[in-house]
Amino acid sequence: MTTSTTPWQNWAGNVIASPSGRSNPTTVAEVTEVVTAAAERGSRVKCVGAGHSFTPAASTDGVLISLDDLTGIESIVPTRDPDGHVDGADVTVWAGTRLHQLGPLLWDLGLAQPNLGDFAEQSLAGAVSTGTHGTGRDAVGMPATVVGLQLVAADGSVLNCSRGSNPEVFEAARLGIGAVGIITKMTIHCVPAFVLSAEEHPWTLSAALADLEGFSRSADHAEFFWFPHTDAVTVKRNTRLPGDAELRPLGRFRELVGDEFLSNEAFGALCRTAARRPSMTPRINRFAARAMSARAYTDRSYRVFASPRRVRFREMEYAVPVAAAAGVLGDLRDMIDRSGIVTPFPVEVRFAAADDVWMSTAHERDVCYVAVHQFHLMDHTELFRSAEEIFLAADGRPHWGKMHTRTASDLSNTVRHFDDFVSVRDRLDPDRVFANEYTERVLP
Ligand SMILES: Cc1cc2nc3c(=O)[nH]c(=O)nc-3n(C[C@H](O)[C@H](O)[C@H](O)COP(=O)(O)OP(=O)(O)OC[C@H]3O[C@@H](n4cnc5c(N)ncnc54)[C@H](O)[C@@H]3O)c2cc1C
């Protein structure tokens, strides 16, 4: 461990911390050493992934551990369906592996993660620990694909957990917001490699809201981005094809115009204009929506799911019941129109299937994720405060890695297994070695 004088900040720049030390262990034994030494000194410990949470989930004034040197695939065990046919594999991956590294590694093995978010810089353990998800009415979030994990607890013990071994620790740690221990490796269920046929086109919010249920089922992975102050949306529909389907990737020019230029460089310039002249935001959004032209392409799943995001923003995302989502979006539109609040960033609308993960935002209910964003140079406070009121009125549950104001007492009423989670944490970390400012707010 090295003593640190360098401040740490998250990707969005809204969380800044001063860790007392930093450590980049290369083995599980080294992780154990760092944790036990810190616990003996009475220091706190936090593991950071890629620092891409908007909440202070990875912030610490104690020792900041990074598993950037604990990466790659450890082992693969083929799995079979009830008829005995191979239907994928359980793949054990070192926890610090970034998602953008994992996609190509799995592809070379004929495998893929069943679903991904729209971005791939995160570490596997960081993404799973906050409940990262993608979109798809039949697609569960990342924690629900975890079938086993190895955890270093506060007393230095190394626990191997699954449904069959330390089942309660497994349930808590597969969405554990870094509060129950340090995950050193994870076993995730992967499916045979697949290709996605992507279709993107402009549409209207009114049309989407008229049959949101139908829209959510219109492709394997359907989502849309709504440009506030307009009725314009950009639809993205991804359809799964076999792994040997012919690829028709975006040409370099279309890729530049789409992801690199519009999503990043030009969009950043538009956002800076909106920050200087907020009253121009509705015009800017109309222009941005028109600039997102239709395109279709077919590529490896991990290349289609994720895109680069270089324009910094702040984000709040809630999971609401699918049946309530059209009302929530209508209320959001009315609130923005009435309040005079402006944002150049689109609202992202996605879906996920119910799962059984204790702390999951989709625990036992199909959900629609509604995410509001604000450019990092513009004030997000009023937008997020008013949006959160709407989400809460619809029984929304906050994403653990995105901004929200919920506290332990609020969450204990909405997260069904909150008390089970807390009792596992009390048992594994009675002295709160893994606590930080975020866990002090969201956990007792
Ligand atoms: C540009 C951008 C795009 C995003 N897109 C999506 C999206 O499409 N879908 C979505 O759901 N979310 C999305 N997010 C949110 C993001 O996926 C989560 O916040 C995720 O947790 C970030 O992963 P990370 O590796 O940066 O974790 P960090 O933010 O570094 O850490 C998150 C939590 O995990 C804990 N942790 C990290 N490693 C370990 C470990 N080894 N053991 C135990 N705990 C650990 C940390 O202590 C912390 O509590 C996005 C965020 C950004 C900035």
Question: What is the CATH T-level topology of the largest domain?
Answer: Vanillyl-alcohol Oxidase, Chain A, domain 3
Spatial shape: globular
Biggest sheet, spatial arrangement of strands = 16-13-15-14-18-19-17-20
The span between the termini is 30 Å
How much strand content do the residues show? 25-35%
Mean pLDDT: 95
CA gyration radius, whole angstroms? 21 Å
Outline the low-pLDDT stretches. none
Helix percent band: 25-40%
Please outline what is shown here.
Residues 1-25 are annotated as: Disordered. The chain is 33% helix and 27% strand.
How does this structure look, described?
- The radius of gyration is 21 Å and the shape is globular.
- It folds into 2 domains: 73-193, Uridine Diphospho-n-acetylenolpyruvylglucosamine Reductase, domain 3 (2-Layer Sandwich); 195-398, Vanillyl-alcohol Oxidase, Chain A, domain 3 (3-Layer(aba) Sandwich).
- Helix 4 crosses helix 13 (418-428), helix 7 packs antiparallel against helix 8 and helix 10 packs antiparallel against helix 11.
- Helices cover 33% and strands 27% of the residues.
- It has 444 residues and is an alpha+beta fold.
- The strands form 4 sheets. An 8-stranded antiparallel β-sheet has the order 16-13-15-14-18-19-17-20, with helices on both faces.
- It has 14 helices and 20 strands.
- Strand 7 and strand 8 form a beta hairpin.
- Flavin-adenine dinucleotide binds next to strand 5, helix 3 and strand 12.
- Flavin-adenine dinucleotide is lined by residues 11, 46-53, 57-58, 67, 95, 117-119, 122-123, 125-127, 129-130, 132-133, 177-178, 182-183, 309, 399, 401.
